[in-house]
Amino acid sequence: MRETPLARTRRVRKINRELGRAYPYAVAELDFENAFELLVATVLSAQTTDVRVNSITPELFRRFPDAQAMALADERELQDLIRSTGFYKAKASSLLGLSQALVAEHEGEVPARLDALVKLPGVGRKTAFVVLGNAFGRPGLTVDTHFGRLARRLEMTTEEDPVKVEKDVAALFEPRDWTMLSHRLIFHGRRVCHSRKPACGACPIAKWCPSFGIGETDPAEAHQLLKYELAPGREDLAEKMRAGYTRRQLRAEGYSLGA
Ligand code: SF4
Hints:
Layout: H1 5-22, H2 35-44, H3 50-63, H4 67-71, H5 75-82, H6 88-106, H7 114-117, H8 125-135, H9 145-153, H10 162-170, H11 178-191, H12 219-224, H13 235-242, H14 247-252
Bound molecules: iron/sulfur cluster.
């Protein structure tokens, strides 16, 4: 029997609540102190992991703490600082271009508007929503590869195109829930509902997932597939995250926050 629109809305909202219980500590996994740092880190995160970006941004922001400083950067030096994030030539050129545009058009400040953000070099809707949601508290859906895959598996959409996915998912939730839903789906995609080996048998939302069974369903086997703080043997890290330790505190205690 086909699911009615009302039943779907109820089901996916239950999923959001359950993910909130599973990941009460879900936040943007990029480290940042202000909107400029988040914008730069998000541009750098294309085609690489947040963990890798976090490993190079302290030195990058020590050298270039704001748009004014980065706008005057030597391109070679910038490339060297961000080399390990991949596509470093294109990314350095975007960072220079966007810093110069911030200085020329926005007095060096990051604008809190979608239309202005997407005009900056290297900034698409996804990056813009990350910045709006996390640096300015404006609701936004961040449709990255994890979000898109999960939205389809959870039958929030059948679309592949990120803008269409965003539209379908936006219609199912209140705007105030958009930013946290984004964090939670991305967290879940990284830890449990992987692209190739989803850990269905260890999934807290299996009960409401129409795709249950596309991955490992045996609980013990599925548990072995979990990543990050849910990976076998990292229970104390998960406990500290639930207790509210910040990523910075955990790193200072010697925990590795990678997959
Ligand atoms: S049940 Fe499986 S497919 Fe569904 S969300 Fe969980 S891991 Fe993903």
